[in-house]
Each structure stands twice: as structure tokens, then as C-alpha cells.
């Protein structure tokens, strides 16, 4: 059947602009994957060492002050939640007083623009 054409092959045909777009998209994804691999290879060992030092510090603190690691970790999670909410132990003024809010709004307006 020489006159028979496969319909599926025609749907795979890309014009030049679409081909360039697909090639560029593939190159960007490959570039990002390579960058992630390099960044991970550079940073991961440092992160593992820091995590080990932190665990040693927690263990020493736990033994020195006779606090279980579970209680200490629970306290630290509560502390992290307070910090994330903007609560500071040594704050001289509230974080969201009028002056702080005015500064934030000015930053947003100047960054986003109109």
C-alpha cells in the first residue's frame, strides 16, 4: 500500500519555530538539572556536617541540663513557630506597629509598582 500514510507521524511534525521552542525548553531543563546536581554536590556535605554538629550540641545540652531530647526538640519546635510568627524575645517594640506596617506597605508598593 504505497499511498497509505500513517496519521500518527504527521501529528509529530513540528514547524521550525515550534522545534526551536521545544529544543530551548529541553536545554533549559537540562541546564537546571545540571545546576541542581552541582549545587547539591557542593552543599550537601556541609549540610550533613552541620547537622551532625547540631545533634552533638543538642545531646550535650540535654545531658548538661537533664532534659530529654524529646522535650528539648518539642521546645525548639515551639520556638521556631514563635519566630515564624514574628515573636521576638528581645523586641523593643512590636513588629507590626504603625511604623513597621507603613514601612512594609512602602516596600511592597515600591517593589511591585503601579
From TrEMBL:
Gene Ontology, cellular component aspect? plasma membrane
Topological type in the membrane: Multi-pass membrane protein
> Which keywords does this chain's UniProt record carry?
Cell membrane, Ion channel, Ion transport, Membrane, Potassium, Potassium channel, Potassium transport, Transmembrane, Transmembrane helix, Transport
Query: What chemistry does it catalyse, as a reaction equation?
Result: K(+)(in) = K(+)(out)
Q: Where are the transmembrane segments?
A: 21-42
Which InterPro entries does this entry report, sorted A to Z?
2pore_dom_K_chnl, 2pore_dom_K_chnl_THIK
The UniProt entry's GO biological process terms, in alphabetical order, are:
stabilization of membrane potential
Subcellular compartments: Cell membrane
**What GO molecular functions are on record for this protein?**
outward rectifier potassium channel activity; potassium ion leak channel activity
Which family is it part of? Belongs to the two pore domain potassium channel (TC 1.A.1.8) family.
Q: Which PANTHER family match?
A: POTASSIUM CHANNEL SUBFAMILY K MEMBER 12, POTASSIUM CHANNEL, SUBFAMILY K
Name listed for the protein in its UniProt record: Potassium channel subfamily K member 12
Q: Which organism is it from?
A: Knipowitschia caucasica (Caucasian dwarf goby)
